[in-house]
Design a protein that fits this description.
The protein is an alpha+beta fold and 242 residues long. The protein is 22% helix and 39% strand. It is built from two helices and twelve strands. The chain is elongated.
């Protein structure tokens, strides 16, 4: 949010005028271990209207009263800056840090999709068994472990055959039995999932019923996500609200 993306405003005609530095302040931020300086200024447009602004530079301060060159897009003096400086604390390249939460968001959405499918199948699904008909090692590796694509064939309650493909890093959990248990939707039999590959695989008792997880395990699984949400919430509140 503090990366300078103002180059978008300076793609057209740029007006240059003279301004005066009014203040120089060290910002609680660094680039390459060098403190970022916020330089405040004021200037008048060609129409005589006075504006104020602040530009940022790494390790570069301007003395109060010093004359500075101000530039702004034609017709938009509110987007001004000191020539050679930037409108935000960091350069535009700082936006690359957004890639990390975006990647995390993609993994989260993928996991959420799998979890929703698991919940639906655990609640409404029919249980049957599938037979492994193919196992292929793909060219993809995650944390140095190869990803396998495994295909199973199963029948619904009417005897119709379907095939289910699962991708997994732990193929042994899906081939430790002659036939593996899976859940499928009675109304849409092709909508299915292997029981052992569901998130936090369900426990099945001797009667074939799903057993609920212990409360302690649920609390443990919720602790770190909750801690992360609370921590980020406190940071956002202190930074932008408080």
């Amino acid at each position: 949010m503090n990366s300078d993306l103002s180059a978008f405003y300076f793609t057209g005609e740029v007006i240059t005028v003279e301004g005066t530095a009014t203040r120089s302040t060290e910002i609680d931020a660094t680039e390459g271990n060098i403190t970022v300086i916020g330089n405040s200024y004021k200037f008048k447009t060609e129409d005589g209207i006075e504006f104020e602004g602040i530009s940022y530079a790494t390790g570069q301060s301007i003395q109060i009263g010093q004359s500075v060159t101000i530039e702004y897009p034609e017709g938009n003096p509110q987007y001004s800056r000191i020539k050679g400086m930037r409108r935000q604390i960091f350069h535009a390249v700082a936006i690359w840090v957004v890639l990390f939460p975006l990647v995390g968001l993609m993994f989260m959405l993928f996991g959420l999709k799998r979890s929703i499918r698991a919940i639906r199948l655990l609640k409404y699904g029919e249980m049957t068994k599938g037979k492994l008909i193919s196992k292929v090692r793909t060219n993809t590796k995650i944390n140095g472990r190869p990803l396998y694509k495994m295909k199973f064939r199963y029948k619904d309650y009417m005897g119709n055959e379907f095939e289910l493909t699962e991708k997994t890093l732990t193929p042994y959990v899906l081939e430790d039995q002659g036939e593996e248990r899976l859940l499928y939707s009675r109304h849409k039999p092709a909508y299915a999932a292997m029981l052992d590959s569901l998130p936090s695989s369900a426990s099945i008792n001797a009667h074939g019923s799903i057993e609920p997880s212990s409360l302690i395990r649920v609390i443990f699984l919720m602790f770190f996500p909750l801690l992360t949400i609370v921590g980020h919430g406190i940071y956002v509140f202190n930074t932008y609200v408080g």
